[in-house]
Design goal:
The complex is a heterodimer.
Chain A (H helix, E strand, L loop, with lengths): L1 H6 L1 H26 L3 H9 L1 H12 L4 H25 L4 H26 L9 H4 L7 H20 L1 H9 L1 H6 L4 H20 L7 H13 L5 H25 L5 H19 L5 H30 L7 E2 H8 L3 H10 L3 E4 L8 E4 L1 H8 L3
Antiparallel strand pairs in A: 1-3, 2-3
Chain B lengths: L11 E10 L2 E11 L4 E5 L6 H8 L7 E6 L11 E4 L13 H6 L14 H13 L15 H13 L5 E5 L7 H16 L3 E5 L6 H4 L2 E6 L1 E7 H4 L2 H8 L11
Parallel strand pairs in B: 3-7, 3-8, 5-6, 6-7
Antiparallel strand pairs in B: 1-2, 1-4, 8-9
């Protein structure tokens, strides 16, 4: 069945398109997320809708190139307007972005309904850009996407160190003489490009998720920028292909949302199970730390008892230790015994078990570090 | 074509500098001359414009009037002889990078377009980390470093530039006494090698011990010159107003 799917021409086209989208949005998204520009992506993507409509009106039909160009330009204009509002007034950036998002999306929907009201068969299908319609994709569209993807990745590779420094420390970058404003504009253009690539497949509303989810997921696994960008791109491709194939297998399920769900699933798995930053790893570390501290306290108390009784091998009754350290004591004693730090001592029937420090346990208890 | 030199006898020459933020002057009519080879402190109360002064010298803040020269030249013509240590809180330390990566970034400005740092750059960055005794932490992710260690990485990023004039914006903020001592010794070493160090500083108790040149700032320049002549009760009172009662040391 999978083989049959893989041989299917439409499925191939969609999967390749989704892979290209994931590749670019994963790469560019890493920088956007690290710069705290996720909301810029959301505003920009909604702002592509009036551009799509304008491209349609100007070109007089559904030509992908003109729709993409319109989307790219109106997205950049919206980003510029938001930056200008935030920079020249006392409105905060998130509010400015939210305003622009609402304004431009409303404008887009008005234009969309205007085009639909004019009627005619050629007009059909613009609303598919809202949520994406992967099945409408053609092999020719794939070529356009591939060119755009190559441009985006080429720019990231060429300006890697500028992007890195501007993302980490823009002030220092400027002092070093890097053209920070140009790099920031370029990065915004790359975000717009990634969004345009996702319009057909995932649509205006959901495409931001493809910028954020793979990057946020990748951050959980890595320690350096290079691996983060690579992994983010890989996650993007995986989500794209998985979503495309799944939607083909379960006929009738929309491709775009499935791709976004796949990306989000990767994110969820990462935040839970990543080795250093994942929630599970953190929980395990905290538990190990708690156990270490508990064991240490038990050892210290037994050492104190031994000193008071002038007997290094003084058998302490479990009840006494438990009275000091509470319900975790039995587990702590068992772990200490496994480590060879304490040993059970024969005790009278009727009393609780007795424990004594071993030689290693005495050394540990004295260790103040 | 560089402009003719203007006041080249000073490491830093600031004339008539005025910066305003939303119609409020933050710095007003600033004239400062700092000779080469000194370790200079810029002190003043909160809101005195200390960081803004450094930022406008480096072109990060646009002044409404005045000019700045470094060794007689415009900053943009002499970038390579200037290094900058921003406030530690100005960046997100959760950025995915190692200590060595961050120090290497100090060389990005002088690598040409499309060139990535290679073995030579990493060797130099490693040497800079050794200068701040952080070589054992080279591969450590920066989010795992303590505040003092992060500060030392920032200083190493400036050292790797092998500049002649160093600007530091509150490098002692949030570092422990041992680290502070190490930083001071390092900066004294730079000064003794003929470099100039200009530093925004908060702790008046240590001014006389650490520095040999002092600029006292409160929107305007209150006093400047060798510490012995500038660190006076009168200047302190005029810089800090009534808060001066807290200060010992200057009789």
């Amino acid at each position: 069945m999978i083989l049959a799917l893989a041989a299917d021409y439409t499925v191939q086209t969609v999967a390749m398109g989704a892979a290209l989208l994931g590749l670019v949005s994963g790469t560019v998204g890493a920088f956007a997320v690290l710069r705290g520009q996720s909301l810029l992506g959301a505003a920009l993507s909604h702002a592509t809708l009036p551009g799509i409509c304008a491209g349609f009106l100007i070109a007089g039909g559904r030509h992908l190139e003109s729709l993409f160009a319109g989307a790219f330009v109106s997205g950049l204009i919206a980003a510029g307007v938001a930056v200008a509002i935030a920079g020249r007034s006392r409105i905060k950036t998130d509010a400015a972005l939210g305003l622009v998002l609402g304004l431009s999306f409303a404008l887009g929907v008005v234009l969309l309904t205007h085009i639909q009201a004019r009627g005619g068969a050629a007009q059909a299908g613009l609303e598919s850009f809202l949520f994406g319609q992967a099945a409408a994709m053609l092999r020719g569209d794939l070529a356009v996407m591939a060119v755009l993807a190559a441009v985006a990745l080429g720019l990231v590779a060429a300006f890697w160190k500028e992007l890195t420094l501007v993302t980490f420390d823009p002030g220092f970058a400027r002092v070093q003489g890097l053209p920070v404003a140009a790099v920031e504009l370029g990065l915004t253009a790359l975000i717009a490009l990634a969004i345009v690539l996702g319009l057909q497949m995932v649509g205006v509303v959901l495409v931001t998720a493809m910028l954020i989810a793979p990057a946020a997921a990748a951050r959980q696994w890595v320690r350096r920028l290079g691996p983060m960008v690579a992994l983010s791109a890989l996650f993007g491709v995986a989500a794209g292909v998985f979503g495309a194939v799944l939607s083909a297998a379960a006929r009738g399920l929309a491709t775009g949302p499935l791709i976004v769900l796949a990306a989000t699933a990767i994110f969820a798995a990462s935040i839970l199970f990543a080795p250093e930053r994942g929630l599970a790893a953190r929980w395990l570390r905290r538990r190990a730390e708690r156990r270490r501290v508990a064991g240490r306290r038990v050892l210290r108390s037994m050492q104190a008892l031994a000193k008071e009784h002038g007997d290094p091998a003084y058998p302490a009754e479990r009840g006494m230790i438990e009275a000091l350290h509470g319900p975790g004591t039995r587990a702590a004693l068992a772990r200490l015994e496994a480590q060879g730090l304490v040993r059970p001592v024969p005790h009278r029937p009727g009393s609780t078990p007795h424990w004594a420090l071993t030689e290693a346990g005495r050394v540990q208890a004295e260790d103040r570090a | 074509m560089p402009e003719p030199l203007h006041e080249p006898q000073f490491a830093l020459h600031v004339e008539d500098l005025t910066v305003s933020y939303r119609d409020r002057p933050v710095l007003w009519d600033i004239d400062i001359d700092i000779p080469p080879g000194v370790m200079a402190a810029i002190v003043g109360p909160n809101g005195a414009g200390k960081s803004t002064l450094i930022k406008s010298v480096l072109g990060l803040v646009r002044p409404v009037a005045g000019h700045v020269r470094i060794f007689g030249r415009h900053y943009r013509d002499i970038r390579r002889r200037v290094a900058y240590v921003p406030q530690r809180s100005s960046v997100d330390w959760d950025f995915p990078a190692t200590a060595l990566d961050v120090v290497t970034m100090g060389l990005y400005g002088r690598l040409g377009w499309f060139r990535l740092p290679g073995r030579a750059e990493r060797t130099r960055a490693m040497a800079a980390l050794e200068q701040v005794a952080m070589q054992d932490y080279a591969a450590r992710q920066i989010s795992e470093l303590s505040g003092g260690q992060q500060q030392r990485v920032f200083i190493a990023r400036a050292l790797v530039q092998e500049a002649d004039l160093y600007f530091l914006d509150e490098p002692m903020a949030g570092v422990d006494a041992v680290t502070e001592q190490a930083i001071v010794e390092l900066l004294h070493g730079l000064r003794d090698a003929g470099k100039t160090v200009v530093m925004v500083h908060h702790d008046l108790q240590t001014v006389q011990r650490y520095f040999d040149w002092l600029v006292m700032l409160n929107v305007r320049v209150i006093g400047q010159g060798p510490v012995a002549e500038t660190y006076t009760p009168g200047n302190l009172r005029r810089t800090y107003g009534g808060q001066v009662a807290l200060l010992g040391g200057a009789e």
